[in-house]
Amino acid sequence: MTEWNVDPTIFTLGPLSPRWYGVLFATAFLLSYQVMKKIFVTEKKELKDLDLLTIYMIAGTILGARLGHVLFYEPEIVLKNPFELFAIWHGGLASHGGAIGIITGLWLFHRKRKGYSMTWLLDRLAIVAALSGMCIRIGNLFNSEIVGRPTDVPWAFWFKLNDVLPVWRHPAQVYEALLCLVIFIGLWLLYRKGVAMAAPGRLFGIFLVVLFTGRFLVEFLKEHQVGFEASLPIDMGQILSIPFIAAGVWYLVRSSGDSSRSASAR
């Protein structure tokens, strides 16, 4: 068992108080850029397009995650102060909203830059989205947030910033971080084997089905994020995961048909 008592703030120097979450959030984009750069070079795409795509992805991720959190989990704060929709410095980011924001950013980039189909973009961004998800969940761990329910498993955590008395909990953030790492490795290996070219849409379909099915299951081990979830049959995170799982199944079915037709044509 692990006693977790890490300070979310790395250090304080005058007005500067960098936090682990912010560093890991930035690390997610830096690592993603390097992986996408390798993909762009391999497929002989213009790196200047990657720079523009990165801007769209950063904006889509941050705005989507913030809007998703407010609209899905705390809609009442919009009535009090509409500007809270964009107050990302107050905390509160939702991964489902971030996913919607990323897809919206991809669509806008697709409209602006010719030569990139949505499926091409989705397949390749799925790889780095999994990598980013891992970094962000580690950031949640450093913030001692999104904690699990009490348990007596040997790997349980006591989050001392939240529980004064010993309460051993599932490290839900670690579960999701490991899931994202496995997805990243799996998608990268499939990409290297040429799956993205042979069956367009399959990588994105695998990403959606595996990630959000995993998210659905891990939610059973988490504490409620907001009070109203206690009155729901399943948590909000599970409700929001269902459409993504369905979309993933659709992409997998479509990619299987496309690959079969390509094989027949050969």
Overview of this protein structure:
By secondary structure, the chain is mostly helical. The protein has one domain (2-146, 153-195). 64% of the residues lie in helices and 3% in strands. It has nine helices and three strands; from the N terminus they run βαααααββαααα. It has helices at 20-42, 47-73, 76-80, 95-112, 118-142, 172-192, 195-198, 202-218, 236-265; strands at 2-4, 157-159, 168-169. Strand 2 and strand 3 (168-169) form a beta hairpin. Helix 6 (172-192) runs antiparallel to helix 8 (202-218). The longest helix is centred in the last third of the chain and has 30 residues, at 236-265. It is globular.
Gross morphology: globular
- Overall mean pLDDT stands at 90
Number of discrete helical segments: 9
Helix percent band: 55-70%
Order of helices and strands: EHHHHHEEHHHH
- Compute the number of structural domains: 1
- Show unreliable segments: none
Indicate the proportion of strand residues: under 5%
Q: Strand order of the main beta sheet, please?
A: 1-2-3
Largest sheet: 3 strands, mixed
Q: Rg, please?
A: 20 Å
Helix-strand category: mainly alpha
Q: Give the N-terminus to C-terminus distance in angstroms.
A: 56 Å
Secondary structure topology:
Layout: E1 2-4, H1 20-42, H2 47-73, H3 76-80, H4 95-112, H5 118-142, E2 157-159, E3 168-169, H6 172-192, H7 195-198, H8 202-218, H9 236-265
Parallel strand pairs: 1-2
Antiparallel strand pairs: 2-3
Helix pairs in contact: 1-2, 1-5, 2-4, 4-5, 5-6, 5-8, 6-8, 8-9
Task: Give the structure's gist in a few sentences.
The protein has 266 residues and is mostly helical. It is built from nine helices and three strands, in the order E-H-H-H-H-H-E-E-H-H-H-H.
